[in-house]
Amino acid sequence: MTCYDRGDLGLLLLRLGAGATLAAHGAQKLFGWFGGGGIEGTGQFMESVGYAPGTASATAAGIAELGGGTLLAVGLATPAAGAAAAGAMAGAAAVHAPNGFFNQSGGYEYAATLGLTAACLAIAGPGRISLDHALGHAVNRGWMIPAAFAVTGAATTLVVGARVRRLRQRREGEQEALFEE
């Protein structure tokens, strides 16, 4: 008989809470559940904030959140799941960064917190109350942590960088008033 310690229980609760929250956000994007916009509505929003093409961006973000969140919740492929969710949250934080830190002002606090939680779970591992543990950690090896973060970091840098370039090009087309009225 295995005796679980409080670390295992804490990781389980953290995985379930953060994973379910991320998965729900992904379901909003992909299926329009829980008051979300679905692919079409989310795609239009993504396009409006500089992520193009909008439908592909909504799909990628939705899969990273729903897939990453679900896998985190059950504790399977934890390095890849946590890195994918953290990457999606980095993209969300980039949208909210101009509003400052705090969520009440539209800032990036919420996205950063979810992203940091997902990243920490990827690094710490899922604990013994997880599918990874039950499957002998076949998809939760030490080398997978830097690999998952390297791939996710590169992809996130490219996507967010392309968004910044698009927004910069939009602003170049706008002319500021020369004089105050």
Description:
This protein has 181 residues and is mainly α. The protein has helices at 6-31, 38-48, 54-74, 78-96, 109-124, 131-134, 144-172. Helix 4 packs antiparallel against helix 5 (109-124). The longest helix has 29 residues, at 144-172. The termini are far apart. The mean pLDDT is 94.
Cα separation of the termini? 78 Å
Largest sheet: none
Q: What percentage of the residues does DSSP assign to strands (E)?
A: under 5%
Helix segment tally: 7
Q: What is the 3D form?
A: elongated
- SS-based structural class? mainly alpha
Radius of gyration, whole Å:
18 Å
- Elements, N to C (H/E): HHHHHHH
Please report the total strand number as a whole number: 0
User: Which consecutive residue ranges, at least 5 long each, have pLDDT under 50?
Assistant: none
Amount of helix:
55-70%
Average residue pLDDT: 94
